[in-house]
Amino acid sequence: MIQTKLQAVCLLIEERLQIENTEIRKALIDLTNAGGKFLRPTFFFLFAELGDKEKQNPEQLLKIAASLEILHMASLVHDDIIDDSPLRRNLITIQAQYGKDVAVYTGDLLFTIFFDLIIESMNGSAYLAKNSAAMSHLLLGELNQMADRFHTDNTVENYLHNIDGKTAELFALACLEGAYFGHCSEETVGLAEKIGRNIGMAFQIYDDILDYTADKKDLKKPILEDLAQGVYTLPLLMAKKRHPEAFMPYLSKGADITVEEAKIVADLVVTYQGVKEAKAYAKNFTKEALTLIDRLPKGETKKLLKKLTTYLLLRTS
Amino acid sequence: MIQTKLQAVCLLIEERLQIENTEIRKALIDLTNAGGKFLRPTFFFLFAELGDKEKQNPEQLLKIAASLEILHMASLVHDDIIDDSPLRRNLITIQAQYGKDVAVYTGDLLFTIFFDLIIESMNGSAYLAKNSAAMSHLLLGELNQMADRFHTDNTVENYLHNIDGKTAELFALACLEGAYFGHCSEETVGLAEKIGRNIGMAFQIYDDILDYTADKKDLKKPILEDLAQGVYTLPLLMAKKRHPEAFMPYLSKGADITVEEAKIVADLVVTYQGVKEAKAYAKNFTKEALTLIDRLPKGETKKLLKKLTTYLLLRTS
Lengths: 317, 317
Fold this sequence. Notes:
Chains A, B: Belongs to the FPP/GGPP synthase family. Two copies of one chain form a homodimer. The first copy, chain A, is mainly α. The first copy, chain A, has 15 helices and two strands. A two-stranded antiparallel sheet of chain A has the order 1-2. In chain A, strand 1 (87-88) and strand 2 form a beta hairpin. Chain A is globular and about 60 Å long.
């Protein structure tokens, strides 16, 4: 059932990508179809399932679900500029294929499509401002992460603050909007945002762990990318806390770190328990999410939510 | 009186630029204060003056005026990435000072501040969608212009279509919103958008003419920039229409054109009446704007609008 809805989201996104430039249009449609997990729309629809079906407006829900995915896509397109990423979901990125210039405007256009969709679906609602605030948090998270690059004194607190903006915010919004526009009880709406935020935090931490543990063939982006870009994520921060002297000779090189040295650092991160301790953080967020899910109304959807959260967040442990 | 309002707009923009990164914040505030002409807020307030003062909400008008300037600033920050511009309003651009990466997110943040302001000031109004559509047209104009770079077969029609999006759209919106939220008559609201569009078209054409006629010291951006970037504007297109054979040896070099060759092309543009004919186009748009202004309600504001339009658009002739 969710699958059918996600297909409708995918179709709506394609329909909205009306960009005269056919090459860019095609690149964006390919990106939409290329195995993106549609996680944000999925959580959105699951929470909507918990609400009062009779009061729901399916067209409105569809547009909001699409808006969440498009906001995510917009940030991906701009992230790929910053990261100089050649690949995303096994496709050549827009910045690699058409240049950073085209990628700037393409991302901007996706932002306007996002706004089109939320204006159409919730004009007059206080949730418009929530969307704008979420977009702002998302960007500030990215901007701060960028400003912190190559800072060897970056803290865990700072890291958590940045991923709260760049990732957890949108998961929180997805769950919140699903509950609210799905006409759930006030209590469920309140829980939804917190559940989404915890899932988002855990999701990003696991994503950052994968940078240190995954083989290139398993993952759809080059490994150790963050390290080379000077983005020091939780596994590194935890290991460095334990043995700063082991890391400093490498990290003090900043952007001049070689691939060989980066591999040594990655090994040190594992050796000094960085991956293990980061997993402990992620597990705490997952546990908190599951505890909150327990307080949702009983039924099939609750079970599904629990299953998805467990599956998604325990994937690497 | 308008001056006082523009100062309030400036203060509101500063207030909204709450970006944790103090360097970027300072760069944006400097950009706001650095002699930007605040043309869009100016036209906005002038049209509002034509309306029913008793019905007006000063705070709402202030926010909308600021939103127009911020949307303009956002597009400048991203344009500077595309154009590799070192300077804007005699200041080092954000992309030159902090890198393209920072400039991407900074422009994005300005887009969210734009949306914050319009959501706060017109939530529930059909004008929200008009704003979103305007932003979309603006970006498509830029995207198309970029896609047309170095196309020696670019047409005048295409050029006019692109500047209608990238420049005239925002002038049209400024005048339209001034009239609408200033509670003008329906007739004035209808005229406002057309007047703004004609002013915007003439404004951009004159701006493009300056690339071929101004000394570097007079202008705040490097001359012949467009030509070197492969953006073939109206003066060149008109001259080339007359004597394609004179231009092709140079234009066929594309991005490899030298500074010396670009200067030769600039001379050819003047020799073959390109500047003259482009001015004729601009004058037509200006004349159309003035004819439409004539149909506005009588009074001081109408005189001011006429004066400003004449001053602004006949500056180079």
